[in-house]
Amino acid sequence: RQMELAWELGAPVAYHIRDAHAEMLEIMKGMKARLTGGIIHCFSGSAEMAKEYLKLGYYISFAGPLTFKKAPKLQEACRIVPKDRLLIETDSPYMAPEPVRGTRNEPTNVRYVGIKLAELRGETIVLNESQQRELRAQNSSLKEVRAKLAGTGITVKFGKKGEKGTLVENLGNFQEEYPFVIGIGDEKDALNDFLD
After folding, report:
1. What pTM value is reported for the model?
2. Which pLDDT belongs to residue 187?
3. CA distance 132 to 126
4. Contact 50, 80 (CB under 8 A)
5. pLDDT confidence tier of residue 24, bands split at 50, 70 and 90
């Protein structure tokens, strides 16, 4: 019924299809003359499925799962989608990409999807100076923290910038936790205060 309503209104449709690509393609092909186009949101299919959606005039959108190590079919699919039919998204607040997988997804994480997409397609992403500085600062801060923690029995539960993180000291049968707010440099400062 929703596809018929889209036809009546002349509106595109965003489809979120999970574990039902073959069935959805069968429905779409049966309604081919009345399809209004749109997006295959948070695409999770294979390259073969992507080709079928493209033939029907759809855009293909990739989200966090593209960055997962166990997503070879999805990664292959992103390579065959033409640039003019390719989108990226976060699917926030779900499916956070690597390296923030397991946390609440935020729109700012779309950059990780874009970086992985470019890597898989052999393309280049151009970052402005501010973005380059932010990435360098985050990477060096995290490396310093991990290096200082090596062998101490202390781990860090990182959140996202502006949220709470936790230093965790493993003390035999229990753990002591020390919360701090995450921001560039804050992890290092919190760790130095803790270790002093």
Report:
1. 0.65
2. 45
3. 9
4. yes
5. very high
